[in-house]
Amino acid sequence: AGRCVVAVDGPSGSGKSTVSRRLAVDVGALYLDTGAMYRAITWAVLRSGVDLTDAASVAKVAGEVDLRIGTDPQGYGVTADGVSVDAEIRGAEVTGAVSAVAAVPAVRELLVARQREMITNAGRIVVEGRDIGSVVAPDADLKVFLTASEAARAARRSAEDATDVTATAAALARRDRLDSTRKINPLAQAPDAVVLDTTELGIDQVVARLRDLLNERG
Ligand code: C5P
């Protein structure tokens, strides 16, 4: 089969990662977690000790770090300067700082270029993030925007992280606000995206729906 790019966007806790990976496995595509790239850059920025509000310094660190990410939906690794950061990028410290780092225009420019290059080389790939259908891959074969109620998203995240649901809800709301209101490439629904509310849907149902949509598009 030829080229096929699926863009999956949505807020945190909408089920993006689980659904995207499952879909990629099912259709034999690669998978790119762009959030993990922003997280790995954030890890490097935190390690460097530069001030998060100093955009020039943040951009400098981002430009210098050797970031690598796998595309196997069954398990991909992320390294920064040769250090495996898979666990660290999921920690509270990185999660609390990532929206600030991802709002720096030079960081986005750098990662969007990397993502486009990976997509071009992949051929068949499911890409998840916040700006994939709107900016990174506007010509994607299928664009999906996953949503879910705030309560459902917070419940899913706190189940995943074994954290308190009230604290998780507050952290999610804060991150969504920052990601949706930043000046450059905010979380956005592409006009031609299929919107799917997953509040009442199980993973199998969402994946089945996306497979149907892909088949319809040939
Ligand atoms: O998807 P995940 O929660 O891992 O994303 C972490 C953060 O990375 C988001 O909160 C957002 O600030 C940033 N991000 C982004 N653009 C993307 C993917 C993630 O700005 N395409």
UniProtKB/TrEMBL annotation:
UniProt keywords, alphabetically: ATP-binding, Cytoplasm, Kinase, Nucleotide-binding, Transferase
InterPro entries on file: Cytidylate_kin (IPR003136), Cytidylate_kinase_dom (IPR011994), P-loop_NTPase (IPR027417)
Subcellular localization: Cytoplasm
GO MF annotation, one: CMP kinase activity
EC number per UniProt: 2.7.4.25
Occurrences of domain Cytidylate kinase (ranges): 6-213
Main enzyme class: transferase
A GO BP annotation: nucleobase-containing small molecule interconversion
UniProt superkingdom: Bacteria
Binding site residues for ATP: G10, P11, S12, G13, S14, G15, K16, S17, T18
Annotated Gene Ontology cellular component terms: cytosol
One Pfam family of this chain: Cytidylate_kin
Reactions catalysed: CMP + ATP = CDP + ADP; dCMP + ATP = dCDP + ADP
Entry similarity comment: Belongs to the cytidylate kinase family. Type 1 subfamily.
Name the UniProt record assigns to this protein: Cytidylate kinase
Gene source species: Micromonospora acroterricola
Species lineage: Bacteria, Bacillati, Actinomycetota, Actinomycetes, Micromonosporales
